[in-house]
Amino acid sequence: MPTAIVLSIIAALTGVAVITQQIFNANLRVALNSAAWAGVVSYTVGLACMFVFVLAMRDPVPSFAALRSTPWWLWSGGALGALFIALAIFLVPKLGAASFVALLFAGQMIASIAFDHFGTFGLEKHAASPVRLVGAALLIVGVVLVRR
């Protein structure tokens, strides 16, 4: 099992991949002269990569019963991902990569603390302690500084 340091480095590199993806998608929008088609291309390539991943992992196709019993709201992850891609294609060029990411992280942190605190969507509860709230406040201060 990888150490916490290795997992933290991988998580940080994932952040690099996310902003790189958004910059590429914004440039693809210019190249294709269409935000919508840039999103379609991004998702098509992503879908192809996920099929390769499924094959590499040798995961069986989920049963029809499992698909039918899944709560409707769990299916919205793809729609939220598409919304993220579409908005990022527009916002990264207008705000800049640093401001976009700072605002993105602030929104994620605020929502994450609330979701953890209330155990939303089946998460294990983790209290919104004063230390966590101060951390979120400092992140918001960081967003303000990055935006200036």
Topology:
Blueprint (H helix, E strand, L loop, with lengths): L3 H29 L2 H23 L6 H6 L7 H19 L1 H22 L11 H18 L1
Helix pairs in contact: 1-2, 1-4, 2-4, 4-5, 5-6
Pfam family, one: DMT_YdcZ
Keywords: Membrane, Transmembrane, Transmembrane helix
Protein name: DMT family transporter
Q: Give me the strand/helix succession.
A: HHHHHH
Radius of gyration (Å): 18 Å
- Beta-strand level of the residues, as a percent range? under 5%
* Biggest sheet character: none
Low-pLDDT parts are none
Count of DSSP H/I helices: 6
Structural class: mainly alpha
Oligomer: single chain
Mean pLDDT: 92
Number of domains: 2
Helical content band: over 70%
Give the overall form.
Answer: globular
What is the tally of beta strands?
Answer: 0
State the separation between the terminal residues, measured CA to CA.
42 Å
Key phrases:
single chain; 148 residues; mainly alpha; 6 helices; 79% helix; 0% strand; globular; transmembrane; membrane; DMT family transporter; transmembrane helix
Written overview of the protein:
This is DMT family transporter. The chain crosses the membrane at residues 6-24, 36-57, 72-92, 97-115, 127-146. There is one protein chain. The chain is mainly α and 148 residues long. It has two domains: 1-95, no CATH class; 97-148. It is 79% helix and 0% strand. It contains six helices and no strands. It has helices at 4-32, 35-57, 64-69, 77-95, 97-118, 130-147. It is globular and about 45 Å long. The mean pLDDT is 92.
